[in-house]
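Key result, reporting period 2: structure in, sequence out.
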């Protein structure tokens, strides 16, 4: 009895089984990697949503209101914004952190009149970097586009003026 064909069949079957195991392992690894990346993007999106909501709340409020209620509300808004900005330090790329800092510096100026016109370019840059970080780079803004920023009510909507 010849053992050559039997050994060849066993080797062929072993290679086939090992190949299948390798393919399944690699497939599982890549699927898991994609799931983790997707979950990370979802979590970042939620943090970015909270950040933009905090900026929106801050932009909709006139600083230095005289009432205790207004001061309390402003303190709560500032606390949410600070928490959002601090979280950003942990999750965002440097470009997003930089643009968020620039926008924060503008909107924390002394009066609403001073920052209403000045926030448009930093906001557009921030949103563009957030979109890039969330892998939405194929939907770039035109160079002359300026993002609107919507307050909590329609009357508080801050629309950008024509591009400058």
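The corresponding designed sequence is given below.
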């Amino acid at each position: 009895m010849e053992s050559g064909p039997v050994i060849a069949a066993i080797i062929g079957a072993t290679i086939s089984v090992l190949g299948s195991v390798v393919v399944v392992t690699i497939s599982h690894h890549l699927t898991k990697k994609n799931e983790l990346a997707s979950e990370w993007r979802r979590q970042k999106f939620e943090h970015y949503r909270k950040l933009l909501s905090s900026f929106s709340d801050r932009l909709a409020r006139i600083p230095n209101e005289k009432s205790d209620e207004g001061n309390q509300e402003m303190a709560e808004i500032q606390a949410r914004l600070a928490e959002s900005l601090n979280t950003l330090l942990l999750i965002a790329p440097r470009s997003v952190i930089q643009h968020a800092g620039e926008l924060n510096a503008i909107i924390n100026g002394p009066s609403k009149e001073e920052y209403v016109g000045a926030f448009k370019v930093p906001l557009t840059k921030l949103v563009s970097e957030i979109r890039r970080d969330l892998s939405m780079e194929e939907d770039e803004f035109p160079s002359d586009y300026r993002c609107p920023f919507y307050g909590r009510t329609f009357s508080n909507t801050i629309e950008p003026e024509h591009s400058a």
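Residues 4-156 form one domain. The two ends are 90 Å apart (CA to CA). This case is discussed further under Risks and Mitigation.
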